[in-house]
Amino acid sequence: MSHNPADQLPEQQYIFVYGTLKRSVANPMGAMMRSYANYVAEAIIAGRIYDLGPYPGLVLEDSGTAVYGEIYEITKPNALLALLDAYEGCAQDDTQPHEFVRVLATVRDTDGVDYRAWVYVYQGQVDPSWLLPSGYYQPANGMA
Question: Model-level pTM?
Answer without folding.
Answer: 0.88
